[in-house]
Design a protein that fits this description.
By secondary structure, the chain is mainly alpha-helical. Helices cover 77% and strands 0% of the residues. The protein is globular and about 55 Å long.
């Protein structure tokens, strides 16, 4: 079976890789169970479980909201929902990249012992991240309710934006997971880069604060990925430029991840 797959890969690597990704996606019972067990194992014997992350994030949002809201001179009713959604979505995006770096290295034992598509470990990671995000989304719901913000029909656009985040999460995990399997310097490099990106991305500040230098945000793909979720929830429909930028970046991200994974996926077990 493996030899047949390798021959198919040599003849048509892209087609073979797409088949492997689809096959892995169909094994939802496997990666779904593994992802759920990862969450349970991480918070084993904890009463609060994943909600410890939620409580920590909530305290961070409130503390940051009061401090920066005062510094920027913005009313809490306007700033706190903006900050809350930005932080929660940023946590998801950065998690896709940082944890994506360990998609394969963190599953070394399973990859060497279990004859299954490598892509299940990417789906497993993304599913685990979604579970944590759903816990953190409670903060968003409470903040919106507290300030009487009802997204209404516009909230549907936020669901579409969230779908874009998931697609990018898969691409990030494939790309950086493969890179990290070969170069172990990638995880610490990305950790430093993500820390820097947090401060140059409109998460805790508004684009308007940049005045004549708004190009810093306009060419930042993370800003647009956050905005297609945050905007509809706050009745601030994202501009068409944000949707176009997010869609184009998603397409390029997926293409790069697919090409790189297709080129090196057979080498991953030997790099581990």
């Amino acid at each position: 079976m493996i030899e047949h797959d390798f021959r198919s890969y040599r003849r048509a690597p892209i087609r073979s890789t797409l088949g492997e990704l689809i096959h892995g996606l169909r094994l939802v019972d496997l990666w779904g169970t593994l992802g759920w067990l990862d969450v349970r194992q991480r918070y084993r014997r904890s009463i609060m479980g994943p909600f410890w992350v939620t409580l920590t994030l909530a305290a961070f949002v409130v503390g940051l909201g009061i401090t920066y809201g005062t510094l920027f001179g913005i009313a809490m009713a306007d700033y706190l929902p903006y900050l809350c959604i930005g932080i929660v979505v940023w946590t998801l995006l950065s998690g896709f990249i940082l944890e994506g770096c360990t998609a394969f290295t963190g599953a070394e034992a399973a990859i060497k012992q279990m004859p299954a598509p490598l892509s299940i470990h990417v789906y497993r990671l993304v599913w685990r991240s979604i579970i944590i995000f759903l816990h953190n989304a409670v903060i968003i719901a409470l903040v919106l309710i507290f300030f009487g913000i009802n997204p209404g029909a516009e909230g549907v656009l936020a669901v579409l934006g969230f779908a874009l985040l998931i697609v990018n999460g898969l691409a990030f995990s494939l790309l950086f997971g493969t890179l990290s399997a070969r170069f172990r310097d990638i995880p610490p490099l990305m950790a430093n880069l993500i820390q820097t990106l947090f401060f140059v991305t409109p998460v805790i500040w508004h684009v308007d604060n940049l005045k004549q230098r708004q190009i810093i945000a306009e060419w930042n793909p993370f800003y647009h990925l956050i905005e297609v979720v945050r905007g509809p929830l706050l009745h601030n429909a994202p501009s068409m430029n944000s949707w176009i930028f997010a869609l184009v970046f998603t397409a390029l991200n997926c293409a790069a991840a697919l090409l790189f994974y297709a080129r090196f996926r057979w080498r991953i077990p030997y790099w581990l």
